[in-house]
Amino acid sequence: MADFSKNLIVRMFDVYKAYGKTSALKGVSLEIAAGDIVFITGPSGAGKSTLLKLLYKAELASQGQILVDGLNLSRIGARQLPELRRRIGVIFQDFKLIAGRSVFDNVALVLEAAGEKPKMIEKKVMSVLRTAGIEEKARVFPPSLSGGEQQRVAVSRAVVGSPRLILADEPTASLDPQSAEQVMQLLETFHGKGATLVIATHNRRMISRLKGREIRLEGGAVGVPEDFSGEKAEEC
Ligand SMILES: Nc1ncnc2c1ncn2[C@@H]1O[C@H](COP(=O)(O)OP(=O)(O)OP(=O)(O)O)[C@@H](O)[C@H]1O
Question: What InterPro entries is this protein classified in (predicted)?
């Protein structure tokens, strides 16, 4: 039985994921409380991206139970998928912005899909772009922005609908240290506004700075977190 006194936003119970003959996750069980910061770490191929994909139902678990914000993912059908996705903001290493839409329109898309009124969309998008320090780039198209700016747009898009859960897959891996720092700051800001953060990363600096809990995956299973020493820090 789930312990609801902890206000869990994510619960995975004995989750397996296979891609054909490849076992990406092998019996993962974990709990994440609302308001937590959790880092998913582990070597390449350990299953970090797969775990995140299962949480927003981009992939289906082969076995096991996943609950996200009270929704049992094996029970929700295509009609309820938009409701799940509205509760989650996703950030990718390669930004995944739409090149042919302005910064404003990239961020507005989430609110348009949720049926918000144009006036409210304008207000919310500009507010989030201001927080991200890219308000003056609102009418610019993504290809003319730096990587750091593009990731700040991607973070803005992820948070504009005030999701309860933000999933980030290596959000600083393709950024220079200064841009990575800005993205970390931004994630910290939105955590301060109440979002739960689940971040797959190799960036030890982010882990020590944001002071989250670490869940380390090894070969698709939950292992023991590394004993981190600052001297061995990987930048990104
Ligand atoms: N779509 C797919 N089809 C087949 N195999 C896949 C697919 N996606 C992932 N895998 C395999 O599943 C395993 C876990 O991959 P995953 O991308 O989740 O690892 P990761 O920890 O995120 O790795 P990295 O740090 O390199 O991004 C790997 O063996 C990978 O090759």
Answer: AAA+_ATPase, ABC_transporter-like_ATP-bd, ABC_transporter-like_CS, ABC_transpr_LolD-like, P-loop_NTPase
Q: Is residue 21 part of a domain?
A: yes
1 inside domain:
no
| 215 contacts 222 by C-beta, under 8 angstroms | yes
CA of 230 to the centre of ligand 1 (A): 28
Find residue 72's DSSP bridge partners. 67
pTM value? Answer: 0.92
Distance 51 CA to ligand 1 centre (A): 10
Distance from C-alpha of 154 to C-alpha of 170, rounded to nearest angstrom: 13
Q: What does the pLDDT look like over 186-209, one tens digit per residue?
A: 999 999 999 999 999 999 999 999
Number of domains in the chain: 1
Residues 86-144: tens digit of each pLDDT: 999 999 999 999 999 999 999 999 999 989 999 999 999 999 999 999 999 999 999 99
Pocket probe mutation, ligand 1, options 22, 53, 172, max atoms within 8 Å of Cβ: 22
Task: Specify the CATH number for the domain of residue 219.
Answer: 3.40.50.300
**216: which 2 tokens?**
């380390």
ipTM confidence = 0.98
